[in-house]
Amino acid sequence: MTIATIPRKSIPYNGEEVPVCELEIINFSRLLSQEQTEIKKLLRCCQDAGFFYLDLEDIDGKRMLEDHQRLLALMRRFFNSPHDEKNEIGLPSLEHGYEPVGNHTGVLEGTMDGYEILQVSRDEIRMPNPNLPSIVHNTRDIKTFSDFIGGSNIITKTILSCLSTAFGLSGEARFENAHRNEHKSNSALAMMRYLPGDPQSSKEIGHQKHTDIGSLTLLFSEQWGLQVLPPGSDTWGFVEPKKGHAVVNVGDSLRFASGHKLFSCIHQVVPIDNVADRYSIAFFLRPENHAKFLDSQGRWVRADQWHDEKFDVFKATHAEQKLVNSMLVGGMEG
Ligand SMILES: O=C(O)CCC(=O)C(=O)O
Ligand SMILES: [Fe+2]
Question: Is the ipTM, as predicted for this complex, more than 0.95?
Fold first, then answer.
């Protein structure tokens, strides 16, 4: 375990004291001006823990925090609507549409996941008339989605650019060149509502352990539940929600694109509150569909192929997942 993840605190969960991971803090405004000390620190975080807090409290990030609050209000209204209205367009593609609770394998053997999810893909929201359920298909809600996706894209691209600089990459070799804005990708906004559950008895709870498919994930949640498996450790640690900060993590695609030098950390979600719903929002920056890299099994894969294959693994039973475990966790263990 690295210094960045040595636990100093713990919280009670399911009758045990569970450590809280101390993630490092990276300042977004300093990344925006390519400050060398911040870039070095960013590289270290992405090589060690694969997870860090992003401080958005300064003027450059503050709008994103306001957009987060607006999106949360939209989510509350959406998720509290009748099932048929939420499910109006179903799931037209893996990264766009609605899925009810229990659609993926769960945290514990024999269980299913405990969250419902509305995804809005970046490519879809850029269309003149995006395909959305009627309850969120109006000028104001479309603006809320596109502001959040646009802002998240700027933030994650800034991080990506700093990582290219940290690796000394130039021209076509820079990571941005596999994430060009006008090329089709599976980049998407995911809005999740977790139902409260009892770890002893619930059959639908949390979000199974995994590494993220794409390049960088920008995550917002005001509530506990996210756990990471720090590198070299076999003990899960909670990530404390931190006001004014997002949590960022490296996904499989960027790990592969970096020649496996960056660390895509294994994580899961176990809501600790068995009374209140838990809301979380993730923006997944993913490479353009045609980008290719060497995956954890030594294959040259296209970004969209890795995306689609891994989604199948998320739905597979625990027994089936054991056979392809390395894919679920991007080859980070097993
Ligand atoms: O809900 C969260 O806090 C994390 C969700 C997550 O890991 C994911 O959607 O990939
Ligand atoms: Fe994740």
Answer: yes
